[in-house]
């Protein structure tokens, strides 16, 4: 899932390559992806792309006052294309969800970008709105993970009942963190994903806050400047525990373990995070608090 560092890097990439260009047309290939009808997608045609921003994990393209807002969900991505075909794509064919055509610069072939989504479970969402606050997910966002101060972060955790893993990925609490970076942050903070958010000591809150900022900042520094096509690989290369089940922890050498749920999983290091005890691989584990 693209998270704060990847979406912010896409913002930087589009500012460099797309801002100032005119949107000639937008092709919808997956009807379920579009979540709004007024203004229509066709209203973007002929308007200049004047800015790009991020709200949590939402990508916001300002098209002369209208906003094309995208949430890439679990398996969505943005692909920059050169020499886009003139014929519109056939709906429902392949992973393509949306195609944005940009006016050619000088004599170069027209280019633009595709929004795609792999797999059968479709969650990629596209909105055309007059202000980003009209998107329900944006209106509910908590403070950005790289903007929240330590005192506010501590207060948010203190008012949250539930496990740390869920707290970090709750976008209404802190915006921008998903499954992968929550695993990485908890590993860096040496905290169990099952520890209760409102039971942290002052030292644990400080460790978690500093780990959050350091993990996201380092990931962002690796991502910004990358081409869109290389960002996924760059994300994987920097992970310490996430998606590394069965491999040695790069910090202590213990085997990285996994807890599986119905539609997701988490990874952690027992030595670094749970006092050497493996967590029970079931949703309601009571092994460690």
Short description:
With 289 residues, the protein is of the alpha+beta class. Helices cover 27% and strands 21% of the residues.
Largest pleated sheet? 8 strands, antiparallel
Question: For the record, what is the CATH homologous superfamily label of the largest domain?
Answer: MutM-like, N-terminal
From N to C, what is the helix and strand string? HEEEEEEEEHHHHHHEEH
Task: State Rg.
Answer: 20 Å
The outline comes out as elongated
**CATH level 3 topology of the largest domain:** N-terminal domain of MutM-like DNA repair proteins
List how many beta strands DSSP finds: 10
Separation, N- and C-terminal Cα atoms: 27 Å
Percentage of residues in helical conformation:
25-40%
What is the CATH-assigned architecture of the largest domain? Answer: Alpha-Beta Barrel
By DSSP (H or I, 4+ residues per run), the number of helices equals 8
The proportion of residues in beta strands is: 15-25%
Strand order of the largest sheet: 5-7-6-1-2-3-4-8
**CATH top level of the largest domain?**
Alpha Beta
Q: Give the averaged pLDDT, no decimals.
A: 92
Uncertain runs with pLDDT below 50, 5 residues or more?
Answer: 283-289
Give the assembly state of these chains: single chain
Structural class: alpha+beta
Domains (count) = 2
What report would you give on this structure?
This protein is of the alpha+beta class. 27% of the residues lie in helices and 21% in strands. The chain folds into two domains: 4-139, MutM-like, N-terminal (N-terminal domain of MutM-like DNA repair proteins, Alpha-Beta Barrel); 150-273, Helicase, Ruva Protein, domain 3 (Orthogonal Bundle). It has eight helices and ten strands. The protein is elongated. The protein starts with a helix and ends in a 16-residue tail after the last helix. Its cofactor is Zn(2+).
């Amino acid at each position: 899932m693209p998270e704060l560092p990847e979406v912010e890097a896409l913002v930087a990439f589009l500012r460099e390559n797309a801002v100032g260009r005119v949107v000639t047309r937008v092709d919808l290939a997956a009807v379920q992806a579009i979540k709004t009808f007024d203004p229509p997608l066709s209203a973007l045609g002929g308007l200049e792309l004047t800015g790009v921003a991020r709200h949590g994990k939402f990508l916001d393209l300002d098209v002369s006052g209208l906003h094309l807002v995208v949430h890439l969900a679990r398996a969505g991505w943005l692909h920059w294309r050169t020499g886009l075909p003139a014929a519109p794509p056939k709906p429902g064919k392949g992973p393509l969800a949306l195609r944005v055509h940009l006016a050619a610069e000088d004599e170069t072939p027209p280019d633009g970008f595709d929004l795609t989504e792999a797999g059968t479970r479709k969650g990629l969402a596209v909105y055309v709105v007059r202000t980003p606050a009209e998107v329900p997910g944006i209106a509910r966002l908590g403070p950005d993970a790289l903007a929240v101060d330590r005192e506010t972060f501590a207060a948010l955790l203190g008012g949250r009942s539930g496990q740390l893993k869920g707290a970090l990925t709750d976008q209404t609490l802190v915006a921008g963190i998903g499954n992968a970076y929550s695993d990485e942050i908890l590993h860096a903070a040496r905290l169990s994903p099952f520890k209760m958010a409102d039971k942290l000591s002052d030292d644990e809150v400080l460790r978690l806050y500093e780990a959050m900022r350091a993990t996201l900042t380092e990931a962002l520094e690796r991502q910004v400047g990358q081409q869109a096509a290389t960002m996924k690989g760059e994300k994987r290369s920097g992970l310490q525990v996430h998606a590394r089940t069965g491999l040695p922890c790069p910090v202590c050498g213990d085997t990285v373990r996994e807890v599986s749920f119905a539609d997701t999983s988490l990874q952690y290091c027992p030595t670094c995070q749970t006092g050497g005890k493996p967590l029970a691989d079931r949703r309601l584990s009571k092994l460690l608090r």
